[in-house]
Amino acid sequence: MTMTVQSPTDAAARDWPRLAFVAVVSLILLYGAFYLYQVSQPVFGAILLALATGFAIVFGAQRFYGGRFIFPGIAAVLIFIAFPVIYTIYIGFTNYSSFNLLTYDRTVEVLTSRGTVDPATEQPFAVAVDGDAYRIWLPDSGLISTPVTLEGEAAAELTPSAPPETLLERRDAIKLRGGLQALTLTTPDGVIIQNAGLRTFATVTPEYTQTGPDTLTRADGTTITANHDTGFFETADGTPVPPGWRVNIGTDNFERIANSQGIREPMVSIFIWTFVFATLSVLLTFAVGLALAVILQWEHLRFKAVYRVLLILPYAVPAFISILVFKGLFNQNNGEINLILNGLFGISPKWFTDGNLARSMLLIVNTWLGYPYMMLLAMGFLQSVPADHKKAAALEGASAVRVFFTITLPQIIPPFLPLLIASFAFNFNNMVLVFLLTRGLPDIPGTVIPAGETDILASFTYRLAFDNAGQQFGLAGAITLLIFIVVAAISYANFVAMRRAAQRRSGRA
User: Fold this and answer.
1) Residue among 98, 84, 44 at smallest CA distance from 473
2) Which residues cross the membrane (predicted)?
3) Which domain holds residue 15?
């Protein structure tokens, strides 16, 4: 018996395609990281750099062969779950909002670029081509500039001239607006004019001039000073001048939640409603689904197959379509539900303007969407209940209802419990239903933030961050952290309860 020994040359020849692939992918990721750093996205560049390093090490070295199977999953969890959570928590400790989007340097640049146009000097312009450069033609004053490239900041002199033969079309001149905005022209009288829009040049007086490291002076002599605690330039009396820049503000967002009645009260109301909504949704869908499953198990029921298909149809239709259909059915003026109620009882409920009715409508629609799932599960679990137990109880004289609650239900609840907990977690964050059906409306009166009576915590946070004129990302991040802590506590409590229940069952066994 002979043993073949593989030479290092053969191993290298076999591995070179893999190593070449790893090298190419790593170089692409490194280039992406470098590009993100260049466009002022250092955090995402660092993430891509870490991904490139991990990919090269795990897939390049044979000793980490086992890690190749779990690396994609770990990378996905870190990038798409851990990083968003950590970044959102970080945002909660900043003043990040629609008024504080910029960096400090960019804020200074924006404020000093503002200017007041003198209407007396405003005049239209056109652009003429001069070889590889351009000339600016002012037809009202008959002046033309010296050649300029319109690349970066530039200055040119204006001299009297006849109209140039060829002028650029307006749409072609607009493409040069970057260079035009950085161009300064000087008239023969020494007047300096700048680009004042897409069609004119004029004398532009800067609104603010930088007079110190943290001070800007307005044209009227008023001085504003940078406050790095609030992220705004402020006047002497403390009035902020937008736009501002992002700064760390510690626990100010959390103190604002605790101390502001206009934030605290709607948050508590929404928090309670979220629990009620998730709990009632689980109970209603479970009760309706289980009841229908029991009915479909009745051996004397005819046309079972037809009923099963009809009852599963809501599960087959995409949820967003069903929600929009129900939105039309519940229309207060022309909806079929109100037309029927008005015809039978003379009432037309205000489903979308009354808070309690709007919440009831959410529960009705969510029950319709969720019962087929529970019904399918229950049909399977009911099959696993031993028929001998039910027959023995029936022989003892127990009614069908008592058999169900004393024998059938206790045996299907344990396998149902994890699914009920998962359903609770889903409905706790069921933002799609709220947004498509009510958008959180009607609004809660007396609040200083967008908050509605049908909002759950997820939709409330989304509206606060993205669906508001004064988008408050920092405050939304702080609320998200509180939600994360609450949900984590609930999940841990459920885990402990399930473990203790399992231990009790094993002890009885």
Assistant:
1) 98
2) 20-37, 43-62, 69-93, 270-293, 305-326, 361-382, 403-426, 473-495
3) 10-69
